[in-house]
Design goal:
Blueprint (H helix, E strand, L loop, with lengths): L2 H41 L3 H37 L2 H7 L4 H4 L1 H20 L1 H16 L8 E7 L2 E2 L4 E2 L1 E9 L4 E11 L2 E14 L2 E11 L7 E9 L7 H6 L9 H13 L5 H28 L8 H27 L5 H24 L1
Antiparallel strand pairs: 1-4, 2-3, 4-5, 5-6, 6-7, 7-8
Helix pairs in contact: 1-2, 1-5, 2-5, 2-6, 2-9, 2-10, 5-9, 8-9, 9-10, 9-11, 10-11
Protein name: LptF/LptG family permease
Organism: Halonatronomonas betaini
Pfam family, one: LptF_LptG
């Protein structure tokens, strides 16, 4: 690794770690502690459970603090280098300002990818376990029910992009592995082939078994043939009860893939799901703010000396973060209402800040 790169990276790491701790402490002190204190005093939650709830809250917070810490670290590091005339020394040695911001962009990219990974592989499960635990002690130890009403399943054939089947049930219980009042329309080559109606369906080791119903064979130009049955194992590969129950998770308990599947199912039912589509994009755009902040903060840190040192850097970071999350809230609201495209609603703040950062970088480098 080149010496200048290693030197500036060292300048960035310490304030980055400090920023994670400082901003995490702010989130904990202004939100999490109040909730945990409420659980402890009103539901007689044990200390061990309280600690576990606290730990399960941290992954979501860290996803938000990574961009903030990157912003603070970049401003402080480059302000220090500029204040001690080391930027001037670098330039005298032939380094361009654009080359000097490369370490900040590396930290921003690593923080972005780290945030995306945590958001995808840790946050959904942590949020799910948190919700389960809260439900259990709020309802006397009962597990969160996994029952859904008026459930639709419409998986698509990946080869033809057409429905494999459409299933409707009036009541689905993942705990019992049963469905009540079931309608299943099976497709072949993208066309409806069979309609199966049953009073109930039960999950067995070899799949779903339907009881007390009728099968209608659907062929264009032919009479609809009907066959009554008391027991029938369907050909359609309907998911297991546990897998279906996962579709009932809150969106912040889903991975990107699960959320994509959930959105596809909801859209197939004619729902707009603008809010869920915005949230899907935010699972990437929010962590990616680390890179955007690094791009914008490095030129800001190279500005002429300001009075106040670290305090000024902290204050400037808070102002930028406030504006960023203000824009994010605006984009979220507009995207969720369908006023703008969901992806634009999720990425609006990043686009604006990337534009500002590019202009600052251009002016600084002239």
């Amino acid at each position: 690794m080149k010496i200048y790169l290693k030197y500036i990276l060292k300048e960035l790491i310490q304030p980055f770690i400090f920023g994670i701790g400082a901003f995490t402490a702010i989130f904990v002190g202004t939100d999490i502690l109040f909730r945990l204190a409420d659980f402890y005093s009103n539901f007689d939650v044990s200390i061990l459970t309280t600690v576990e709830l606290f730990l399960l809250s941290l992954p979501q917070i860290i996803v938000y603090t990574f961009p903030m810490a990157t912003l603070l670290a970049t401003i402080l590091a480059y302000s220090r280098l500029n204040g001690d005339s080391e930027i001037t020394a670098f330039r005298a040695g032939g380094f361009s300002l654009r080359k000097l911001i490369i370490p900040a962009l590396i930290v921003g990219l690593l923080a972005s990818f780290g945030g995306i990974a945590i958001n995808e592989f840790v946050v959904p499960e942590a949020n799910y376990r948190y919700s389960q635990m809260v439900y259990e002690f709020q309802h006397g130890g009962e597990e969160r029910p996994r029952t859904q009403y008026d459930l639709f399943l419409t998986p698509l054939d990946s080869a033809t992009n057409r429905p494999e089947f459409i299933l409707y049930t009036r009541r689905f219980s993942a705990d019992d592995g049963e469905m009540e009042v079931v309608n299943l329309q099976e497709y072949e080559d993208g066309r409806p082939a069979r309609l199966i109606e049953a009073d109930r369906a039960v999950w067995r080791e070899d799949g779903w078994q339907f009881y007390d119903g009728q099968i209608y064979q659907l062929r264009a130009g032919d009479r609809v043939a009907r066959m009554d049955f008391s027991e029938y194992i369907v050909r359609a590969e309907i998911e297991s009860p546990d897998r279906i129950a996962e579709l009932d998770r809150d969106t912040d308990e889903m991975t990107l893939w699960e959320l994509s599947e959930y959105i596809a199912v909801m859209r197939s039912q004619g729902r707009d799901v603008f809010e869920e589509r915005v949230f899907w994009h935010q699972k990437i755009s929010v962590p990616f703010a680390s890179f955007i902040f690094a791009l914008m903060a490095a030129p800001l840190g190279m500005k002429p000396k300001r009075q106040g040192g670290s305090a000024t850097g902290m204050g400037l970071s808070v102002i930028i973060i406030f504006i960023y999350y203000g824009l994010m809230t605006l984009g979220d609201a507009m995207g969720s209402q369908g006023a703008i495209s969901p992806w634009l609603g999720a990425w609006l703040q990043n686009i604006v800040f990337a534009g500002v950062g590019s202009v600052l970088l251009y002016k600084t480098g002239r």
